[in-house]
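To assess whether ligand presence alters the predicted conformation, the chain was also submitted together with alpha-D-ribofuranose. Input:
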Amino acid sequence: METGLIPAIVDCDPGTDDAIALFLALASMDVRLVTVSGGNVPLDRTLANARAVVGLAGKPVPVVAGADRPLLGHHRAETAVHGADGLGGVVLPDGPPVTPGVAADAIRALLRDAAPRSVAAIALAPPTNLALALATEPALAGRLSGISIMAGAWGEGNWTPSAEYNAAMDPEALAMLLEADVPITLVTLDLTAQALITPAVLAALPRDGACARAARAILGAVPPSRRFDHAGFALHDPCAVAAVIAPAMFGFRQAAVRVDTGDGAARGRTHIDRWGRTAHAAKIRMAETLDAPRFFAMLADALQRLP
Ligand code: RIB
Ligand code: CA
């Protein structure tokens, strides 16, 4: 337990950007639990990757396996971005053994012992684990200070033209979180596009220490995105961590957000009403703008604080 830092649960599917987000969270928060789901790559790989990152960071944080598939439908990987192993081919030393149990149970056990509104949840994967935890014990939402979710877009998706990957993989789970009795911060593709990893940004990251070297290698393995004319790629998941630890570098707006859970072309689309055009309550805090230089400076500082 690290005094003065925000207690956190990180749910992830490492995944190159998840790995960087874990480094940032482990350096900047009191991470009490890391839960893992199948996502960018299958669960056996995301679990090994999460253990490896936690081990490299030298933090005694339990890593617990969760859902290997969404609530409905089947798992679909995103190896084009993350590689078949999930870390772009970067091999890390094996991490500590997995903590036995199931993610949803571990989340509930941690929250049962937590004070009201005391623990921040960071949702970086298809949000199946958090949805399962809260669906079976809804009162535990009151122990969460908030959930910062990387998902969705008010513009085009990155899995389908309509839907962002995490939302597309488990729209029912995302809808359940958006309806939970907990303050939600939503970090969409429109926000993360402002955290563009270009060769110049990568070159400016620190080189000293195993974690900094691993982060540079992992980021260096991600292909530049055609969405940005191959000038670089958006760094998604660390933005959801930063929205909790450094909100001052963001611009936020309250918005109404609904998820399309149909089975048509818009499945997984986040219908985001930023201007009060619908009758739905603007209960979601949308991250709209990011001070990218400050964000990258914070990431560099966090990596330098790790082994
Ligand atoms: O669409 C980006 C999100 O999907 C990120 O969380 C990435 O890691 C993948 O899980
Ligand atoms: Ca992720």
